[in-house]
Amino acid sequence: AATAISAMIRLSGLILLLSSTTTCQGFVPSFKLQTPSSTFRNPCHHEQSTSLNGGLFGLGGKESEEPPSQPDDASVPARVLEIPLSSIKKGGLRFSLGLHLVGLQDKGTWRANQASDNVLDMFFKDNSAMFSLILEDESVVIDRYGKPSLAYVLQESLVLHSVLDEIQTLAFEGDIEDENRLLQLEEPGDGIEKARATLPARKA
Asked: Which residue, of 30, 50, 73, 125, is most buried by count of CB atoms within 10 Å of its CB?
């Protein structure tokens, strides 16, 4: 009886181990990501990041003819845009923008991933590059990692214009008191327009 119980315990442990093992097929970047703290973020590392589909709901733990210039080291980010803020509610803003990014996952072109409490990643299907949306204390920034392909650049522009539209909505639209908004722009309040001007113009 003791042998049978011991075997059942080992089997249960094996099942738990297998069930906790995650795989990450597709969207695996061919480059390592270097954060400001000089640590590497791996989108497949369960302890460091969670899929937005699970992380947000508690179910799981940058149009041009040439790609933009990028640092020689693919692990070093290139700043795409920055929006200065006078106030930010990081938790609510992360949730709202995370939902928006999940909605932009279209036919396997992009995959959204929550890297941390203040970082949302978007991985492109050809693995050439990705971008991180970072919620800082006084700004929202977009950093790009990798060596972007032309296809990536065209798609990134569409996604980032959409993200700016969502930020515009959260900052200004609706009958909401300023102090209750998830973010307020730093005066003179033209940060979204300036950020949009750095992107290729979207098609009418």
From this structure: 50
| Contact assessment for residue 196 and residue 96, using Cβ atoms and an 8 Å cutoff | no
**What does the DSSP 8-state code read for residue 72?**
S
For residues 84 and 41, give the distance between their C-alpha atoms in angstroms, rounded to a whole number: 25
Full DSSP string of 105-128 = --TTSEEEEEEETTEEEEEETTSS
- The predicted model gives 97-114 an average pLDDT of 94
Read off the DSSP letter of residue 85.
Answer: E
Integer CA distances (angstroms), 22 to 10, 19, 192, in order: 21, 8, 38
Angle of CA points 122, 123, 128, to nearest 5°: 135
CA separation for the pair 181, 107 (Å, rounded): 32
Q: Which of 110, 126, 118, 125 is nearest to 160 (CA)?
A: 110
CA distance 59 to 165: 28
Chain centroid to CA 57: 16
CA distance 196 to 92: 23
In tens, the pLDDT along 67-99 reads 555 556 677 899 999 999 999 999 999 999 999
CA distance 158 to 160: 6
